[in-house]
Amino acid sequence: MNPIAAEAVITGDHKLSLNTDLPKDCPVGKAKAAVTVEPQQDAPAPANRLAELRGQGKGKVWMSDDFDEPLEDFAEHM
Questions:
Q1: pTM over 0.70
Q2: Alpha-carbon gap, residue 61 to 65, rounded angstroms
Q3: Buried b (16+ CB within 10 A) or exposed e, 14-50
Q4: Residue 33 domain boundaries
């Protein structure tokens, strides 16, 4: 079997999309494929998702000064 070189795209959901017309003499049926992933020069560097999320809640959450004080509603259970 002769190797066939073709361009492919890896989609956002990590699936391989091969949109290439194969030669007419290729047999129909199952085939094995080897994929070599080469970094694209124009592709942005992968973002660190954790770094993007840090600090998102700053100033949005607060605790009352008497947070640790016993609640009156539970006085009979203590």
A1: no
A2: 13
A3: eeeeeeeeeeeeeeeeeeeeeeeeeeeeeeeeeeeee
A4: 1-37
User: Is residue 23 in a domain?
Assistant: yes
Residue 46 lies in a domain: no
Going through 1-78 in order, the beta strands assigned E by DSSP cover: 9-10, 16-17
Number of structural domains the chain divides into: 1
* pLDDT tens by residue, 5-41: 778 888 888 888 887 788 888 888 888 878 888 776 7
Question: What would the DSSP string read from start to end of 46-64?
Answer: PP-HHHHHTTTTTTT----
Alpha carbon distance 10, 37 (integer Å): 9
